[in-house]
Amino acid sequence: MFNQLGVIGCGLMGGSFALALKRAGLVKRVIGYSKSPSTTEKAKKLGVIDMAAESALLAVSGSDIVLIAVPVSATEATFKAIRHLVEPGVLFMDVGSTKRDVIDAARRVLKERVASFVPAHPIAGKEVSGIGHADAALYTNRQVILTPIAQTAPELVQKATDVWAAIGSQVLRMSPENHDAAFAAVSHLPHMLAFAYFNSVARQPAGRDFLSLAGPGFRDFTRIAASDPAVWRDILMSNREELLKQSMRFRHTLDAMEHVIKTGNADALEDLIRSSSDARSGWQMNAAKPPTNR
Questions:
Q1: Which of 72, 120, 222, 274 lies deepest, with the highest CB count within 10 Å?
Q2: Residue 175 near residue 182, CB atoms below 8 Å
Q3: Is it the case that residue 251 has pLDDT exceeding 50?
């Protein structure tokens, strides 16, 4: 059991982690910090945190586990604010959807203290954000990817593994590079496509009429287009190198499909559709562990 959890960023992810640890009986007290005092006040009223901190540094003070749940673009500033209290033996984790940029920031700011930081990415979330949507079950039966580096203290990697497993998560480990390449393909590109596709329909002169006719297929395909704009702006920009590689691959496959349609080659079109349909029918979410090396 931990004596105190410090949460920096009392939103959906940080709040859900706090509730999950409380429900599992893994922490005695939770102290939280957010830029907006009204957010921490609401978190306290909802029982997500027990005490509000006036700064990120004060959220770390006295904590033996710390979760940094801020937008990836704010991670480096957060490290700068807390670096003097990043002590050996205290477990520090983040929840960022990109890892190389976060780790680079940790190396720059924390220097030798980076050993206390275990980069983490829980594959969980909702289309809605904010402390009001925090859910103790958010991480249950969800994958959590840890991307430790050579300097990361092995005992803290194990501690991170144990705490995520204790709240019902499936814990995997990957290199930061492989993580960012993989999630550019299976998360970041789908979001970019959903944003672009919805805009392409909605911004047409008859877009409103088209949307009024849309059914379950359109709803399911565009569900993630309702995701938090600021969060996804940061994610797409921070992983743009890998994202653009995946976007180019997608363009090639789209070009191939457009070509057979233009040339009237129905048999080739059916083959492309069947290839996708068969592969999708055989796919199961979280059925296989990702490779640890590229």
A1: 120
A2: no
A3: yes
Task: Report d(CA 216, CA 110) in Å as an integer.
Answer: 48
Q: Average pLDDT, whole number, for the chain? A: 95
pLDDT digits (tens, 9 = 90+) for 73-108: 999 999 999 999 999 999 999 999 999 999 999 999
Tokens 């379950």 sit on residue: 216
Measured CA distances, 46 to 10, 26, 133 (Å): 12, 19, 10
Classified as helix, coil or strand, 4 is strand
User: What's the rounded mean pLDDT across residues 268-276?
Assistant: 97
pLDDT(276) > 50:
yes
* Ramachandran area for residue 19 (φ above 0: left; ψ -120 to 50: alpha; else beta): alpha
112 token code pair: 């030798």
Quick check: 155 and 182 in contact, CB under 8 A?
Answer: no
Q: Retrieve residue 51's tokens.
A: 């005490």
H/E/C letters for each residue in 218-279? HHHHHHHHHCCHHHHHHHHHHCHHHHHHHHHHHHHHHHHHHHHHHCCCHHHHHHHHHHHHHH
Residue-level pLDDT at 293: 44
Spatial CB neighbours of 26, under 8 Å, sequence gap ≥ 6 = 1, 2, 163, 166, 167
